[in-house]
UniProtKB/TrEMBL annotation, chain A:
Catalytic residue list: 89 (glycyl thioester intermediate)
Gene3D superfamilies per UniProt: Ubiquitin Conjugating Enzyme
SUPFAM superfamilies: UBC-like
The organism's place on the tree of life at top rank: Eukaryota
Protein name: E2 ubiquitin-conjugating enzyme
Cellular component, GO annotation: UBC13-MMS2 complex
Keywords assigned: ATP-binding, Nucleotide-binding, Transferase, Ubl conjugation pathway
TrEMBL record, chain B:
Assembly with partners or alone: Heterodimer with UBC35 or UBC36.
Pfam families: UQ_con
Matches recorded under InterPro entries: UBC (IPR000608), UBQ-conjugating_enzyme/RWD (IPR016135)
Protein name: UBC core domain-containing protein
Length: 153, 146
């Protein structure tokens, strides 16, 4: 009953996510809420997150696709654009959202954000400071956190 | 598919609902006489919260600041949070020994609905303080805790 009014667009997107998943990304809707997805993103190679499996959750609000999906990390991660509650600072999730984008593009953008942290537009001030003052050390901390929190999902 | 019924079918999951409540709480609510925030900024499941109510005018509670603990378990908001006064208060729906708000004496908790929020609980408790059966009750010394 709860999903009887699911828009066709969401059904289509979900089918494609399941049949042709993007490399290193999986997203599946939960059984009792087709707008709520369990997401896993593999840490990109050549990034401090390599080898990590990161769990996220994604929700398509009522206004979707006129409003962006809501996404956050559930796995702890040391990244200047992700805060302690896993919230993500990414323009397409906010003012740069367009209904032409999809769940897939959002998750690919998050994966890209892991490869290219942007300490000039931080969500976690302390981590961004660390990144700008001593990038090598910040990267080491990010690798350490990946080992500690993202290695066994 | 009918447009009119689309709205009621969308269920905001627990965590995103609590993130919404967190953001609203951070911006500040109404006249500021009720407020709340998260206790542990590292708790990814956002379980433990502290609420504050400023006692309403023309009651024995006027000028007092009451602190409460709200605990949102995994089944929130299907189930209400547990609500417990930290500051001592004499009120009909509050257990005298523990400070727990007893749901059978507080209809918002007894008749809980998924759309209710922590803000609703605090606002309703503030109204309850001003109800005729509570507004004149003798109170414990100000600033004492359970």
């Amino acid at each position: 009953m709860a999903n009887s009014n699911l828009p066709r667009r969401i059904i289509k997107e979900t089918q494609r996510l399941l049949s042709e998943p993007a490399p290193g990304i999986s997203a599946s809707p939960s059984e009792d809420n087709m707008r709520y997805f369990n997401v896993m993103i593999l840490g990109p190679t050549q990034s401090p997150y390599e080898g990590g499996v990161f769990k996220l959750e994604l929700f398509l609000p009522e206004e979707y696709p006129m409003a962006a999906p809501k996404v956050r990390f559930l796995t702890k991660i040391y990244h200047p654009n992700i805060d302690k509650l896993g919230r993500i600072c990414l323009d397409i999730l906010k003012d740069k959202w367009s209904p032409a984008l999809q769940i897939r593009t959002v998750l690919l953008s998050i994966q890209a954000l892991l490869s290219a942290p942007n300490p000039d537009d931080p969500l976690s001030e302390n981590i961004a400071k660390h990144w700008k003052s001593n990038e090598a050390e910040a990267v080491e901390t990010a690798k350490e956190w990946t080992r500690l929190y993202a290695s066994d999902a | 598919m009918t447009l009119g019924s689309a709205g009621s079918s969308v269920v905001v999951p627990r965590n995103f609902r609590l993130l919404e409540e967190l953001e609203k709480g951070e911006k500040g609510i109404g006249d500021g006489t009720v407020s709340y925030g998260m206790d542990d900024g590292d708790d990814i499941y956002m379980r433990s919260w502290t609420g504050t109510i400023i006692g309403p005018y023309n009651t024995v509670h006027e000028g007092r600041i009451y602190q409460l603990k709200l605990f949102c378990d995994k089944d929130y908001p299907e189930k209400p949070p547990t609500v417990r006064f930290h500051s001592r208060i004499n009120m009909t729906c509050v257990n005298h020994e523990t400070g727990v708000v007893e749901s059978k004496k507080f209809s918002l908790l007894a008749n809980w609905q998924r759309r209710f929020t922590m803000e609703d609980i605090l606002t309703q408790l503030k109204k309850e303080m001003a109800a005729s059966h509570n507004r004149k009750l003798i109170q414990p010394p100000e600033g004492t805790c359970y």
